[in-house]
Amino acid sequence: MDKNIIELKNITKAYSDNTVLDNLSLSIKSNEFLTLLGPSGCGKTTTLRIIAGFENSDSGDILFHGESISNLPPNKRPVNTVFQKYALFPHMNVYENIAFGLKIKKLTKEDIDKKVKEILNLVSLSDFEKRNIESLSGGQQQRVAIARALVNEPEVLLLDEPLGALDLKLRKEMQLELKKIQQRLGITFIFVTHDQEEALTMSDTIVVMNKGVIQQKGSPEDIYNEPANAFVADFIGESNIIDGVIVEDFKVIFCNKEFECVDKGFNPNENIDVVIRPEDIKIVAKDNGMLNGIVKSVNFKGVHYEMVVKESEREFIIHNTKFYDVDSEIGLDIYPEDIHIMRKIRYYE
């Protein structure tokens, strides 16, 4: 998975005075499940539409296997797209919907029948050939839309928030199903979502975007554990983001106390952001911790309690499996490896 199949080079796109993509460059590898993740308006869907050919960039180029496809119309590009609204034909049954693109290509009836049956088996809809589209559940319709896209054997499948219309349970089931399909076929998936958990669950690579700029690209583990800036830390899961000052390599001050950390390469007395995940703050007995606090609220989240704890300088969000009463006085411990330091450059502003 080390060969690039698609390269976006210096893509810029604006609508009137609104710059949607700002000199964006991105490489996507063959057989990769890559997710474009970010809030509404960050440019992720525009990026997908430019790859598909539904939008033209104002400047820049798109390469496919090293060759420019910027001037190719959508039907000439080796990609297919699955939208949030599946755009299935209601007057056709499941078989006819999936076979539609193959008929346009003028394949023989035998070839069409073989390919449709193979793809129906892949998406676990083998017994649904003659079913009317409107009789299917949301999850079944989504599988038909995916099958219709995959039956044309694209080298890249583009998915624009295809799980957005599903209920939570079905959405989680389909996340795993989509990943299985991608691994079985070994083709490149480019997936758009604003759902952080969805991105972390499904992706080989996540690209976090905001205001038309890539904030960070990396594996789900890297994005979560080593966010590049405060925007990524705040957007991917919950974080405590605290103002701090670097003392020297491996030492930082925040909440009026000096802590050991594992970061280096900053300037002495440099103002920085300290990021600490809620699950990385350990609760200990009062006065035995590095910091002390008072529990202000407790909410049960299923596998843990989410607490807001007031320390003298600020409030911390803490996740813990043990229940603590509101107004309890507790100590807080934070290990060096759980303190993440980042510069205060606001790339996303």
Topology, element by element:
Layout lengths: L3 E12 L2 E12 L3 E5 L6 H9 L6 E6 L2 E2 L10 E4 L11 H11 L4 H14 L15 H13 L5 E5 L7 H18 L2 E6 L2 H7 L2 E6 L2 E6 L1 H6 L4 H6 L4 E9 L2 E4 L2 E4 L10 E6 L5 E3 L6 E10 L4 E6 L4 E6 L8 E5 L6 E4 L6
Parallel strand pairs: 3-8, 3-9, 6-7, 7-8
Antiparallel strand pairs: 1-2, 1-4, 4-5, 9-10, 11-12, 11-14, 12-13, 14-20, 15-19, 16-17, 16-19, 17-18
Helix pairs in contact: 2-3, 2-4, 3-4
Structural commentary:
With 349 residues, the protein is α+β, with helices and mostly antiparallel strands. The protein folds into two domains: 4-230, P-loop containing nucleotide triphosphate hydrolases (Rossmann fold), CATH 3.40.50; 238-343, Nucleic acid-binding proteins (OB fold (Dihydrolipoamide Acetyltransferase, E2P), Beta Barrel), CATH 2.40.50.140. It contains eight helices and 20 strands. The protein has helices at 44-52, 94-104, 109-122, 138-150, 168-185, 196-202, 220-225, 230-235; strands at 4-15, 18-29, 33-37, 59-64, 67-68, 79-82, 156-160, 188-193, 205-210, 213-218, 240-248, 251-254, 257-260, 271-276, 282-284, 291-300, 305-310, 315-320, 329-333, 340-343. The strands form four sheets. A six-stranded mixed sheet has the order 6-7-8-3-9-10, sandwiched between helices. Strands 13-12-11-14-20 form a five-stranded antiparallel sheet. Helix 2 crosses helix 3 (109-122), helix 2 packs parallel to helix 4 (138-150) and helix 3 (109-122) crosses helix 4 (138-150). The longest helix has 18 residues, at 168-185. The radius of gyration is 24 Å and the shape is elongated.
